[in-house]
Amino acid sequence: MPVLSDITSPTLLLDEKICRHNLQVMSEKAKRNGKKLIPHFKTPQSHLVGKWAMEYGIREITVSSIKMAAYFCGQGWDNIHIAFPFNPLETKNLSDLAKNQSLSVQLINEAVTEKLAKELENPVGFFIEIDAGYGRTGVEVSDFGLIEAILRKAKSTDKLKFKGFYLHAGHSYYEKDIQKLYEQTRAALGMLKSKYRSEYPDLITRTGDTPGCSVIEDFGDIDELGPGNFVFYDLMQVALGSCKREDVAVALAVPVVDIKKERKEILIHGGGVHLAKDVLLEPDGGKNFGEVVFLTETGWEIPSQRSFLKSISQEHGIIKASDELLSHIKVGDLLGILPIHSCMTADCMKGYTTINGQKVDHAEG
Description:
Blueprint: E1 11-14, H1 16-32, E2 36-37, H2 47-54, E3 60-63, H3 66-72, E4 79-85, H4 91-97, E5 103-107, H5 110-119, E6 124-131, E7 139-140, H6 144-154, E8 160-167, H7 178-196, E9 204-207, H8 210-215, E10 224-225, H9 235-240, E11 250-260, E12 265-269, H10 272-275, E13 280-281, E14 287-288, E15 290-296, E16 299-301, E17 308-312, E18 316-320, H11 323-328, E19 334-339, H12 342-349, E20 352-354, E21 359-360
Parallel strand pairs: 1-20, 2-10, 3-4, 4-5, 5-6, 6-7, 6-8, 8-9, 9-10
Antiparallel strand pairs: 1-11, 11-12, 11-19, 12-18, 13-14, 15-16, 15-19, 17-18, 20-21
Helix pairs in contact: 5-6
């Protein structure tokens, strides 16, 4: 890898080939099922990755904040959806952005709906976010009183256009039976579509979790898919069965600063400020903050013997090393770390370098 000789500190590497493959696979899956793919770009947060996505027919994206929406404005997107219960303190910012960019938001209560109805100067679409078991946020799927109160408030202005219902089945990250979970998701969105379609014939339904969108084939009459993490994937998705290690498109390049062969430990420059502190548990109860790959001229290779970060602090990381790794590595070498949660690692690093040395933007960079 030509770029390796220039790396002296933790650097987030992005394999364009793997990333494009992930975009292509999910795009083809959506088309095969007759769905529109509207990926959540809180994972890459990158203009360049957005251009790659457009090459696979993706014309709309989802973001998680006004700030992120502003970053993607002017890039040619047909619509940018802000998938977070709308923060009423940012009403003016939303209205200003909507002057030149088609935007939509998520509403979950009357108060915010009323504020937008009164203060928006430019039109904005909205989804009502539905909670059908996740429990994080959203209107309870059976709370028709609140759903209709939101719709009534929105009708008081021509600046709010009802688009449909959004359901993030986030419990797919800890529920083992994803098939059963998706039966509930399909049923919830199907019921709402049936109930409100006569009054709103153009309403659409969208779901957006990566584990479900990666493994489910039957999405019923759900109209749109909005996964995000699939663009890069990570070890959490590997553990959930969403992908293979070979599908993870980012790896943190880290310098080796010490080796304790008698303890089978390797000290690296790479810690919580680079990887975040998402963790998986090992079978023995130990912690796993990321797994080692060997960096090569063309990307990285997965070792036959697994080594992983067993502990991290702010800048330090300690690898529990295999015999294979100890025989390959010396102080001053670089190793790659596949992240547990690629979204958080990318946010920490605020930018990428491709395996060919190209610098890639990030919204926080």
